[in-house]
Design brief:
By secondary structure, the chain is an alpha/beta fold. It is 17% helix and 19% strand. Strand 4, helix 1 and strand 5 form a beta-alpha-beta unit. It starts with 9 loop residues before the first strand and ends with a strand. The structure holds zinc ion. Zinc ion binds next to strand 2 and helix 2. The site of zinc ion (ZN) has 6 residues, from strand 2 and helix 2.
C-alpha cells in the first residue's frame, strides 16, 4: 500500500508498557537517482518494513554532518553516545558510501540529535512531527524523492534533513543510551526496519551498541540498491 505524497505516513511500533523506538517517514513514488553496482549481501531483516517498501539512504559518497544539542553535565552523556554510534556505523560502508561526522555548528548539520528535555531545535516541515512518548524518534520528510530541508531555530537557512530525538529519562545507564542512539543512527543511515532478533542493534528495544553482522549486512544491502528517497 502506498500513500500519496500529500499524506505522510508514520510507522510506529509500540510494545506494551514500553516506549517505542520509531522511525517516521512519508512516502513518495519518485525513483532513485543513483544505482550502485557492487555485489551486496542479502539483508538479514527487511530494511523497508517501516517505510512501506520505500528504500531511503544518503547519496553515495555523502558526508553526513551530525550536530548534538548540548546537554548539562552529569549522568549519561548524549554526545559520547552519538560519537560511538558514528564510529560504529562508519565501519559498515564499503568504499566510503557515506561518512558520518560530528560537527559543532548546528547550522551546517544534516542531522540534529537532541534530548526530549530541551525545546525542539528545528522547525519541522511538511510531515507531522509527533514523537509522543517514544524513547527514540527519527524523523525526515520526503518531498519529490528527497528529504525536505529543515531550518534550525535561530537560523535562516534550510540545512537539516533529519532529526533524532531521544528521551534520556528512559536510559538509566550510558550503555542503554548508547544502544538507543546506535539504533536511531541506524535508522538515520538507511535502515527503515526493525530486526526481530534481540541481539541486533536494530531490535525494537536494543541492548547492544555495536552493529552485528546482521545489521551490517542489512545496511550494506541498502547501500547497494537504488533509493526511492534520498536523504
Ligand atoms: Zn527503531
Amino acid at each position: 500500500m502506498l500513500h500519496s505524497p500529500s499524506l505522510p505516513r508514520r510507522v510506529a511500533r509500540r510494545p506494551a508498557c514500553r516506549p517505542a523506538w520509531r522511525v517516521i517517514i512519508a512516502i513518495l513514488l519518485t525513483a532513485a537517482c543513483d544505482n550502485p553496482t557492487a555485489v551486496r549481501p542479502d539483508f538479514a531483516y527487511n530494511p523497508t518494513d517501516l517505510t512501506n517498501g520505500q528504500l531511503y539512504r544518503w547519496s553515495i559518497g555523502a558526508r553526513v554532518r551530525l550536530f548534538v544539542e548540548p546537554m548539562g553535565a552529569g549522568g549519561v552523556d548524549l554526545a559520547s553516545a552519538v560519537q560511538r554510534a558514528v564510529s560504529a556505523w562508519n565501519a559498515v560502508p564499503q568504499g566510503r558510501e557515506f561518512t558520518l561526522d560530528v560537527v559543532t555548528n548546528r547550522d551546517l548539520a544534516d542531522v540534529i540529535v537532541y534530548d526530549r528535555s530541551i525545546p525542539q531545535p528545528v522547525v519541522t516541515g511538511s510531515c507531522p512531527f509527533n514523537p509522543s512518548g517514544a524513547a527514540g524518534y527519527t524523523y525526515f520528510c520526503p518531498v519529490n524523492g528527497r528529504a525536505e530541508r529543515l531550518r534550525p531555530l535561530a537560523s535562516t537557512v534550510l540545512t537539516t534533513a533529519l532529526v533524532i530525538r531521544v528521551d534520556m529519562t528512559t536510559t538509566a545507564t550510558q550503555a542503554a543510551l548508547d544502544a538507543l542512539v546506535a539504533h536511531e543512527v541506524g535508522h538515520a543511515v538507511g535502515i527503515g526496519g526493525h530486526s526481530p532478533q534481540t541481539t541486533d542493534v536494530m531490535y525494537t528495544r536494543p541492548t547492544v551498541r555495536t552493529p552485528t553482522d546482521r545489521d551490517r549486512n542489512t545496511l550494506r544491502n541498502v547501500l547497494g540498491r537504488a533509493a526511492d528517497i534520498t536523504l
